[in-house]
Amino acid sequence: MMHDPQISAGNDPRDIRTALASGQQEIRRVTWIGLVVNLVLSALKYAAGTLGASAAVKADAIHSLTDSVTDLVVIIGSYFWSRPPDSDHQHGHYRIESAVTLFIGAALFALGVTIAWDAVRALQRINEICPCSPSWIAAAAAALSIVVKEILYRWTINTGRRVKSPAMMANAWHHRSDAFSSIPTLAAVTAAILYPAWSFLDHVGAALVSVFIMQAALVIIWPAIREFMDLAAPEEICRRIRAICLTHPHVAHVHRIRTRYIGLNIQCDLHILIPGHMTVSAGHHIAGDVKNRIISAIPEVIDVLIHVEPAGQVQPDEKC
């Protein structure tokens, strides 16, 4: 009777590191372009908001400026989270990307609260404020922002999905929140221009901007919190993993499937039961084959740790 060897079977860890690092240059290229676009757009919107007497457009400009800050955070962070494992971080530096994602979300939420507070204060002092209505230059800047930021969002989110970068996808949502926030800004500014007595709508528009910003922040923050809490993958993923394992002719049973998220990816460990007369070498090859089958069939799974046990008694099914 052989002992129960724990076999970390499968692909060479260098393959995982190579896959992780392969998209970093693309992340930085796209983010650098986004940074330049955000700086230019922020300057244009703030100038238009000042010249056009629009608080909503100036608030929107500040929102775009924070996109530039998060662009820098992503660029700098990408040099750290792509580092290979070392003696102090034996599972790699993946969580640096999650920390960057949390920072982006927290910064975005704080910005939304600030803009909302300023808008409410402005509405409370509406009679003390100059009753000047915004001009069309402010409306034009808001319209331009919608188009440019939506294009930037689509480009960034597609790249983030392709390279599986949560921080880049969070940054993409920051771009989209800017595009969304410009919609009520444009509507409020246009209404205030057409009906000067409704100039207060400009500040209402700024308040609506803050709501979009805070909503986008929560969308960004939750996946990062989920990872730090070691939340398991959905049960459907576990069922698929179990079914894939059982397609191997020598695997009699699968149990103790455990999963956790690393960014958008999943780490998994499980136990398989094989005939007890098989050698350690045979068990190693079976575990390696099972691991490769799982990773090939479920792209989100990037690593599988398999514990091999001799079959001899029926194990109860366990949920993930």
Written description of the protein model:
- It is a single chain.
- The chain is an alpha+beta fold.
- It folds into two domains: 15-228, Alpha-lytic protease prodomain-like, CATH 1.20.1510; 232-310, Alpha-Beta Plaits (2-Layer Sandwich).
- It contains nine helices and four strands, in the order βααααααααββαβ.
- It has helices spanning 13-21, 24-51, 55-81, 94-124, 136-163, 166-194, 201-228, 235-245, 280-297, and strands at 6-7, 253-262, 265-274, 301-310.
- The chain has a four-stranded mixed β-sheet with strand order 1-4-3-2.
Distance between the termini: 29 Å
* Rg estimate, integer Å: 26 Å
Helix/strand-derived class? alpha+beta
Instruction: Say which CATH homologous superfamily of the largest domain is assigned.
Output: Cation efflux protein transmembrane domain
Query: SSE string, helix = H, strand = E?
Result: EHHHHHHHHEEHE
Total discrete domains = 2
Instruction: Report the CATH topology name of the largest domain.
Output: Alpha-lytic protease prodomain-like
- Number of distinct beta strands: 4
From the structure provided, what is the oligomeric state, counting identical versus distinct chains?
single chain
Q: What is the approximate shape? A: elongated
Low-confidence stretches: 1-19
CATH architecture of the largest domain: Up-down Bundle
Number of H- or I-type helical stretches = 9
**Strand composition percent:** 5-15%
Helix content: 55-70%
Q: Biggest sheet, in brief? A: 4 strands, mixed
Highest-level CATH class of the largest domain:
Mainly Alpha
Strand order of the largest sheet: 1-4-3-2
| Mean pLDDT across all amino acids | 77
